Prior knowledge:
Elements: H1 32-37, E1 39-43, H2 47-52, H3 67-73, E2 78-83, H4 98-110, E3 114-119, H5 142-162, E4 169-172, H6 190-207, E5 212-217, H7 223-235, E6 242-247, H8 256-270, E7 273-279, H9 286-301, E8 308-314, H10 320-323, E9 354-360, E10 366-368, E11 380-382, E12 392-396, E13 402-406, E14 412-414, E15 426-428, E16 440-444, E17 450-454, E18 460-462, E19 474-476, E20 488-492
Amino acid sequence: MAILLSIGCKKAAPEQQEISGTFGSSKQVATTEDVFNFAKGADVGWLQQMEATNYIFNNDNGVATNCLQILKDKGINSIRFRVWVNPSADKVNGHCSKAEVVTMATRASLMGFRIMIDFHYSDTWADPGHQAKPAAWANDAFSQLLNDVYDHTYDVMNTLKANGVYPEWVQVGNEITGGMLWPEGSTSNFWQLTQLINKGYDAVKAVNVSSKVIIHLDQGNDNGRFRWFFDNLTANGGKYDAIGLSYYPSDYTTSINDLGINLNDMVSRYNKDVIVVEVGGVDNQPQNTYNMLIAVQEKVRAVPNNRGLGVLYWEPQGTRTWTGGYPLSCWGDDGKPTFAINAFLDNRNIISGATYQLICHTGNKALDNYGSITDGAVVKQYTPGYSQNQQWIVTSLNNGYHKIKCITSGKVLDNSGSSTNGTSVIQWTDNAESNWNQQWAISLLGNGYYKILCRASGNVLDNYGSTTDGIAVIQWSDNAAANWNQQWNFVKL
């Protein structure tokens, strides 16, 4: 994706582990793909300038929050940064210099994000219609352009390394369907384009041999487009590790199967991994964008042998008001993300409409409504057994959240409208479609357990560290990644 806002220019799906029927004794273990491999990412090239201009990012509850933390809480585990050679100072169409990218990538890496670096080899946007050489390289002969690519790539990569950042993926060029560094690197001279690509590849590997080099094209559902390019790149001896795709469908339902066909064909034809490095949907159509993101992730995950590496959203935080009109973010003008981004919360193993027993990691006690059928009754924990008091129907609300209903009472889990740490969680008559107190985000942690986060408060279900029967279950600030009190096993019944 490249835009000028004047703006103007723009692996086989893993087997699911069987869950034991013995109440309280089993743990749903995440697959290797779930925990370590599948990239759920965001390109946030604008973030540095959004912060510099004092843009305020709010979480779902309207509380000012670090944007990267909001993304992390929404399931994002990978961050992509574009890098330009000598960019302008324009807040939308400039910046993304080496120094700025190193600063932002270092910060993201320290937060635990995996890093992708996207070399445009330009001073501004590079895309299928724009591949202008940097001004400083404009008069260089082709032999010098080869050195320019190598030196620039090596310099950025080595500076990242000096700051402790080792990108997992590196793009040599951005949407280079028509080549890069025009005219010398146009696809009309594929041999020269290949030499430029190989120089970038060599520079990446000289700094960090484990970084995967991606070659990135647009229109990821167009198989003919990709075959033509990569047949030529292969014939000319091109070096790369993975194929990156952009996918911006106007109507995903008419092209999603073509995306899946192309992903699988790229793997089988070229023996390369594939990754959707850019995706986006209309910001004021969050349900459609949510559905599209679910569908795209399913297609990438379905690539055999775990060779579908992930999906990254392009500038999810890039609001219309700040950019001057960019329409494909998943952020509102109120500073809050739309629910479209909840598509990255990993709850694929949770079957909507199925019945589960919810067991806390601390103490192995089960969520229990204690047999009450009364609104406002406090939900407690108890030794796992066969009682329907401990049986909960988990149903998707198709917006990234779920309702959790007890079989005994027909009441749903409710945070009682409080945002205070330590408030008891209750049951209440089901009104979950319109009541945020009853909407819960269920997301997989890195150890096979889940956190259960209330939409109304942003707090998570917590057993307060107790191993005692009859203790009320509460809500507390989210620290689920490190706190067993907030980690819950979903045992399917």
